[in-house]
Amino acid sequence: MSNVSEERSVTLTIDGREVTVPEGTLIIRAAEQLGIDIPRFCDHELLKPAGACRQCLVDIPDAGNGRGFPKPQASCTIPVAAGMVVETASPSAAKAQAGVMEFLLINHPLDCPVCDKGGECPLQNQAMSHGAGETRFDGVKRTYEKPIPVSDTILLDRERCVLCQRCTRFAEEIADDPRLVLIERGARQQVGTVDGEPFDSPYSGNIIDLCPVGALTSTDYRFRARPFDLVSSDSIAEHDACGAAIRVDHRRGKVMRRVPREDAEVNQQWITDRDRFEFRYLTRDRVKMPLIRENGALRVASWPEALGLAAGGLAAGPTAVLTGGRVTLEDARAYATFARETLGTEDIDFRDTATPEETAFLHQHVRGAELVTYSDLMAADVIELVGLDPRAEAGTIDLWLIQAQRAGASIFRTFGRPPADHPNVRKIGGDRPLTSRSVILVGRDAAATPGLLDEAVAAAANASAQLAWVPRRAGDRGAVEAGCFPLPGGRDVDEIVRAATIGQLRGLVLGRVDATSELIDAATRTFTVSLETNRTDLAKVADVVLPIAAPAEKAGTFVTWEGRERPFDRVFDAGAYTDVRVLAELAKRIETAKAVSA
């Protein structure tokens, strides 16, 4: 995805200042290294050069061969040359930039007071810095019906569009989903979709950020806030195990939008639509006060009353602990300590289903394993996906795989297996031999096929290839590292649910666990304490519900599929307690209850 080759260096002069950059660097990038800001709209460091908007025109009196260009050139498309001389603010360059700006504004509506891009708009800023103070245009502006839906979450205002092609290039080059295209020609050219079908890529929201003029807006954020009315906080996305860096914009304790934060080693500048749009759970059916079951129904209780009831029930007999997928590393450690030291049990698991083969795999090949990184995917010759659908489960990985494949990597997929004697059984590494540069990514579904995890381990060992486990949820790898799954002598989630159902357990502790019909049934048959943010199906059948903070409301750490720790700070204070604090208070009362009963 880079336009730069680091094989040789080139020295050139920009605005009278020398700069040395790698051969192949674009003029506009070389200028950035000197702190020179050349106006642009179509240029983006992660997209291929297009030269579509012509706003970045500069003078090149010497192209490095003693001769210059007779007219200003687009600095976003021309690579540097040794001895090149570039002038970004000469009279002819300034006139060209002002002329292009005037041309772009001919049809652009005066929507700034109502446009969502206002306050963070490159067109607005550059019109002030490089445009004229007044227009000479007295004709009729081009108009369109506005807005029109590009998808369920994105609206297009064609009057604002300057045809920079950032959105269409992203769709083709990054998302590998070229259904967003330019249609018509000449003055009627506009952004549209193939056959009018929605652009429903799982990464479609990134075109909102890429659009430099407010032509593409979010249905979720439209007309809701101005950038200067918001407080911005850095965070980490909690919906998968990729660890995407995000910025959360909020106002008065309410999240207004989430956008990507640049991290070259992880998500670059992209996030999935799930990470972008799915944050309403923070306010939907929140549990704000403890609840206890009385006469078959849940009622609001004080913290001392709820903790006392929970402690008495859990101290009465054998108890197991199940944790969910959004717990932080700190939370997971607290649950593991609570289970083993307070409750004295090895019955703890973070999974929604389990097999002995998977448990052994997690102990031997995941916990404490060496890092396999996104950069390893880019350097790989062969990438095997075993029981993993990255587009659905790990979008950031999927975007890296698209680039890795274009860089020459071969990608193969292995899912569930037919019987071993089936004539078309595919072996891992069977299509192209694995090498020490190869990477095998194992997903959660691999455990559903007996022997598939062992085959992946053997294939990696035989070829000295890298092996990594890609869970579906943000807290899963941290749960493994914290020991939130059974050690020898402990029961896994399936055994725990079965034991609770038949009366072998007296209590269950649930920490933001995804509901299954079997678990709901088990929770109704035993004393259940649920630490939860929302009124989930499991919380509704629990005996005690203790409210806890959502990820945005606390500081913590997620551990990615790589094994990379991704710490984040609290976005805002909602007054909710963390899992760690609730478990600590509960542990004190359980110890007291045990001492009294003894």
Automatic annotation (TrEMBL):
NDH-1 shuttles electrons from NADH, via FMN and iron-sulfur (Fe-S) centers, to quinones in the respiratory chain. Couples the redox reaction to proton translocation (for every two electrons transferred, four hydrogen ions are translocated across the cytoplasmic membrane), and thus conserves the redox energy in a proton gradient. It catalyses: a quinone + NADH + 5 H(+)(in) = a quinol + NAD(+) + 4 H(+)(out). Residues 8-92 form the 2Fe-2S ferredoxin-type domain. Binds 1 [2Fe-2S] cluster per subunit. GO terms for biological process: ATP synthesis coupled electron transport. One of its GO terms (cellular component) is membrane. CDD domains: fer2. GO terms for molecular function: 2 iron, 2 sulfur cluster binding; 4 iron, 4 sulfur cluster binding; metal ion binding; NADH dehydrogenase (ubiquinone) activity; NADH dehydrogenase activity; quinone binding. Its cofactor is [4Fe-4S] cluster; [2Fe-2S] cluster. This is NADH-quinone oxidoreductase. Belongs to the complex I 75 kDa subunit family. Pfam families: Fer2_4, Fer4_NDSU1, Fer4_Nqo3, Molybdopterin, NADH-G_4Fe-4S_3. Residues 92-131 form the 4Fe-4S His(Cys)3-ligated-type domain.
